[in-house]
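A further point concerns the way the authors explain their paired sequence and structure data. Showing the layout once, in full, would remove most of the difficulty. For illustration, here is how one protein appears when written out as sequence plus structure tokens:
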Amino acid sequence: MLKSLLSLVVASTGLFAAALPSLAAPSDGFRISGPFAHENLAIYLVHGASTAGPTPLTLQEALEKNLVRVHETGSVNQLDIENTGDQEVFVQSGDIVKGGQQDRVLTASLVLPPRSRRIPIASFCVEHGRWSGRGSENAKQFSSSAAVMPTREAKVAMKAPPPAQTTSRENTAAYGRQGEIWNEVARVQKKLSDNVGAPVASPKSETSLQLTLENDKLQTAQTAYVDALRPAAEKDADVVGYVFAINGKLNSADIYPSNGLFRKMWPKLLSANATEAISKKDSGSDEAPTVEAVKAFLDAAERGRSSEKTLIDGVRLETRDADKALYFETRRATGAWVHRNYLAK
């Protein structure tokens, strides 16, 4: 049975309450609008019914309010995270955390319960070579999460399911993926420097992706994309997600159970999309895909081979691995889903 992503948005009964199973039957209560385009970046909006209940804080909001702590553990590929506040906190795969002994990117989406204990969370380094405090930053904790990973290739490297392997090979595989991410960060830094006409690496740490994303010339180049595309997603109260394409090729999709959570994430995501589009401006561009092609991309990912694992108590991640796309769904033990992410391979 085909499982339409957008029908699931409508079928779900709540992010913070029990919901229909994630494999609910298709429904007609959805639509995709677009494309809305600027230069080589095109977005498509996913419209559906928002679920009831409060909208969680984002990781960015919680860190700014000092309600979440992200701790170093001495391991590149694992951090600890704890929610010290009274509200749930949404963490999205691809969130970059700044500080510690190296800037990191978090690999899975989840919701932290209020007053949680320290919970392990998988990560990869997005800064090569540093293993100490940077300037006045705290080497044991992370201070902010203002950006997300701006490259599909790195997201695939960190999230794609590994091939069947013995436990003894897992550390080797993780190190191999870490190398891919370092290489991708270096490639993106070079492309961004070429396309904005100035170096974007920071003298404070030339390998830091986070510091690159804070570069003034890059942020100026992002502005035209953001100004052109941000309003489209903020007009309607039924927008719960979006899909984007760069140079005419479908890239990724992020879908949320509510317009409230989407709107919180939207500025951060769009900035990352603009960065990725800037890095690929010299790669040649085709016409933006049709809405029918967008639907086919989502449906194909949903039909992939399924596997599941527990992230934290009461939160599970389902991965579906198709020939040309990946699908990730984080959901609670009740069946209520938290985030859906689609990646073209």
Q: What stands out?
A: Residues 190 and 199 are 8 Å apart (CA to CA). Helices lie at 5-11, 59-64, 152-159, 170-196, 209-213, 216-234, 259-279, 291-302.
